[in-house]
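Q: I'm a student working through a structural biology exercise. My instructor gave each of us a protein and asked us to get a predicted structure, then write a short paragraph describing it. Mine is NADH-quinone oxidoreductase subunit G. I'm not confident about reading structure output yet, so if you can add a plain explanation after the tokens, that would really help. Here is the sequence I was given:
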Amino acid sequence: MVKIFINNKEYEVPENITVLEAAQKIGLQIPTLCHHPELEPIGACRVCVVEIEGARTLQPACTTKVYDGMKIKTNSDRVVNSIKFNLSLIMANHPNDCMYCEADQRCELKKLVHIYDVRPLFPPTDLSDVFDDSSPSIQRDLSRCIKCQRCVRVCSEIQGMNIYSMIERGYKTIPQTAFDVPVYETDCISCGQCANLCPVGAIYETPDWKKVLRLIERKDKILIAQTAPAVRVAIGEEFGMEPGSISTGKMVAAVKRLGFDYVFDTNFAADLTIMEEGTELIHRLKEGGPFPMFTSCCPGWINLLEKQYPEFINNVSSAKSPQQMMSSVIKTYFAKKIGVDPEDIVVVSIMPCTAKKDEITRPQQKIKLEDGREIKATDYVITTREFAKLIKFKEINFMGLPDEEYDNPLGTSTGAGAIFGVTGGVMEAALRTAYEILTEEKLPKLEFTAVRGLEGIREAEIDIKGKKFKVAIAHGTASVKRLLDDMKDGRRYYDFVEIMACLGGCIGGGGQPKSLDPEILQKRANAIYTIDERSTLRRSHENPDVQKLYAEFLEKPYSHIAHKLLHTYYTD
Ligand code: HC1
Ligand code: SF4
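A: Happy to help. First, here is the predicted structure for NADH-quinone oxidoreductase subunit G. I'll explain a few features afterward.
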């Protein structure tokens, strides 16, 4: 520990931390823009400057380490004037049209401009004219870019994709793709992490919320929503709830208040996925491969597979993602049940993920109806953030909503379906079912704790009746690529591998509420495991409505009709 003085008060803080971290530990706010707890600090924006006794110039708090006896001022006139000056420099290269910006209340710049009452000090400079709407998942409007480099850093440090680098100089500097090509023409996997970390409105998810708003207002179709496992443990943050709050009931009620006719649970389809993927695994065990088998539900991972690791294409499960299984079942089984033409139904998915927007545009994800028509399974995907925007736009009092229930018959789910939302969850859900089917015995303990945690790569050996089963889990694409490179070069071997493109799995998806809380993933993960613990049913094969779906419509897992509706293929 070292002794430091901040604004003339004495504190003891751990050595080797930064001034910013020390201030945060004692509950003192220092403004930041380029800083993000998940990224290496670079001290680029100069908004976190502080005065340190003995230093000639002001120092950025995010990169300056504390030392014993350090005397820091965070609120002197010199500091405040400098912050204002630096913010007004940023403002001179930023449009003043907040009413048209996708960042709206989430804009970190707008918040600081308000707090510091920044007025224009400099004449406006030319703004970048790069506008890129090539991707179904993310859009870029670089006229709004404040050069914080968070997008560049998250895409390289956490995702290992290196899609952007900073080009040009001075106020013309922008994060751009190689050769300035539209982002969808690069190896971008549509994970949306650049949009999630953007502090302003320069990169954001493709705004499908506007189309959904029109649908709700027009109301000439049957509107059905499905909600992903990870949305319920994060949506509350948009309304001031503590991270890790579980708001399933309020979330369902909000979807209904928006005007949807039915709301179904993607967790139901996660159970269905386990039935198909688990059966595929058992088939492969009987047929001798191909192994390793990879999970297939993360569309960011599927993009990475096709773009950079095509040698593993035959190893990936052919099971569609729960999102796509759910929509396929809605437009066939459920449409028949309620006696409507599938084309009179619109399915909107509420997802923590931007790559899900991309997944629904894949031609092989269309479903073929009995009469030969080929239709889209999911019509629109909105992220957790877009969902919150719709709730606010419609002035629904989220906090005051009662808890409401999903509709049936696609609203029942098990704890195994719930844990899909966190890294390791798909593996654990699959093991619960595969173990019991292969051994014909009840699992003595349902929790496979060896596959849990937030380490980037985890591995475990599972004993299934004397057969050792080697499994691995990777999340955050930089870790995923490390694992895949090792597997490609024969340095690692596994039987079954779960891959999630985003840190933490879907709880850390690119469409989740933005946060500067370093504990956020752990809190959301804990909430997901709490949902599982509280569930009366915790194995996918025990879901009574999934059993009924097979009995009434799909016959059995891996049947001909299940293959037609619930499985897909990948191309390089
Ligand atoms: Fe996910 Fe999935 S868990 S991919 O992370 O398999 O998005 O939440 O909906 O489809 O169920 C996301 C989450 C989600 C699918 C499921
Ligand atoms: Fe990189 Fe993901 Fe953004 Fe694509 S969407 S540029 S892969 S962070």
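A: Here are two points you could use in your paragraph. The pocket of iron/sulfur cluster (ligand 2) is lined by residues 138, 154-155, 159, 161, 163, 183, 188-194 (CB under 6 Å). The chain has three domains: 2-91, 98-206, 211-566. It's a good idea to check both against the output above yourself.
Q: Great, thank you!
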